[in-house]
Amino acid sequence: MKNIAVIGSGTMGNGIAHVFAQSGYKVSLIDISQVALDKAIATIGKNLDRLISKEKITEENKTATLNNIATFTSIQDGLKNADLVVEAATENVDLKLKIFKDLDTACPSHTVLATNTSSISITKIAAVTSRPDKVIGMHFMNPVPIMKLIEVIRGYNTTDEVTAQIMELSKKLGKVPVEVNDYPGFVANRILMPMINEAIYSLYEGVAGVEEIDTVMKLGMAHPMGPLQLADFIGLDVCLSILHVLYDGFGNPKYAPCPLLVNMVTAGHKGVKSGNGFYSWGHGTKDLIVSEQFKK
Ligand SMILES: NC(=O)c1ccc[n+]([C@@H]2O[C@H](COP(=O)([O-])OP(=O)(O)OC[C@H]3O[C@@H](n4cnc5c(N)ncnc54)[C@H](O)[C@@H]3O)[C@@H](O)[C@H]2O)c1
Fold this sequence. Notes:
Blueprint: E1 3-7, H1 11-22, E2 26-30, H2 34-53, H3 59-67, E3 69-72, H4 75-78, E4 84-87, H5 93-106, E5 112-115, H6 122-127, E6 135-140, E7 149-154, H7 160-172, E8 176-181, H8 188-204, H9 210-221, H10 227-234, H11 236-250, H12 259-266, E9 279-280, E10 289-290
Parallel strand pairs: 1-2, 1-4, 2-3, 4-5, 5-6, 7-8
Antiparallel strand pairs: 6-7, 9-10
This protein binds nicotinamide-adenine-dinucleotide (NAD).
């Protein structure tokens, strides 16, 4: 695999384009928004500058990496010669199904189609294409250039050969791939989201306050950040939507989202992105200040 197309140049797409380009692959970065593409290239440049200042790469590496990325606002132009497409567009089922139908029509028959979805069934996405054997999940973690893990998710029809290809490719990016099967939440979110939900239930039931819950998990379990802070970073709307996927997918009440989480999302308190969640983020993300609603 030499030519990679990345669909979507937001938070994840720019990181995915960065790691492929830095490893020497030719990348077509595709987004419907020119503004998003410009922002992505600027972010990649800044992240490469940081690596130069840490003496991890040279100025020449930066130039070579940026030269490996071409941007496109049309899927058709960006997909010529793609050996692999990694889709990292907005998390919305109907949008992803439409994109995969278009990809299936536009891509050569050998092209493997991967999705970075956090929660949508790989098997469902694969089913709208004529090549479900070549559709797979490549679940990168945020921030992509730093996080080592790629959860590689086999759909119901994904072949051993395609899975092996993607595992091998992930290692060439300097990542550690872990193969999992396609069930709701895969592994990462199936375990993480119930933990976050339980932390929110502990707050809701008055077992402890925001800082206390996060401190127990940080100092007691050696987690780098507490579950409530992590939920704010992920986005409370995203957490809620993944809990719905688990709840609907398994039909098990243990995944029912905490009513406090539902209320917060409904009220527009979505965490860092809205400036307010369990913590207040109006001043930036360096200091942890508990939101007014949860101050004792
Ligand atoms: N943000 C995270 O922490 C994270 C972690 C793992 C996986 N994911 C998954 O990665 C995917 C992308 O998430 P994100 O956080 O980068 O989203 P984002 O909102 O930052 O970026 C999405 C981008 O997709 C573009 N887009 C929308 N429709 C498109 C189309 N038809 N064609 C091309 N581009 C299109 C948008 O313009 C936007 O730039 C989602 O599936 C999400 O579940 C996110």
